[in-house]
Design goal:
The chain is mainly alpha-helical and 123 residues long. Helix content is 65%, strand content 10%.
């Protein structure tokens, strides 16, 4: 994915990722429009931007379009995580975890999850 997805565009992508089937612009609006106080036109603008970035695909269904993600959420998260680690922590994950631990950003559950993950990775 060459272009970054903005926070607003991410809200649209999350709605589409959560859907089991492709959605119309109206259905996307119904899922996120009120929470963000967006008009139907704003949602259509976001869909157009995402189409231009190549992260959405659409198909015609009569007089309307059905939108679906062209990028899986896991692939997007992996790319964004890698960009963050590369940009802020020299490409290493350990300094990120250390930063979170120092800033009290890790709960006891987070620490237990990390310990279990490390145990699995070592096995």
């Amino acid at each position: 994915m060459a272009e970054r997805i903005s926070e607003a565009e991410l809200a649209v992508m999350e709605a589409l990722w959560a859907a089991a089937t492709p959605l119309t612009a109206q259905e996307v609006h119904e899922r996120i429009g009120d929470a963000r106080e967006w008009s139907d036109r704003t949602v259509k603008t976001m869909l157009g931007r995402l189409l231009a970035k190549g992260v959405l695909a659409h198909e015609e269904d009569g007089r309307r379009y059905l939108y679906r993600p062209a990028v899986q959420r896991a692939a997007y998260v992996a790319g964004e995580s890698r960009r963050l680690i590369d940009r802020l922590f020299g490409g290493r994950a350990a300094p990120l975890v250390a930063h979170l631990a120092e800033g009290e950003g890790l709960s006891a559950d987070d620490i237990a999850d990390l310990e279990a993950l490390l145990k699995d990775l070592k096995a």
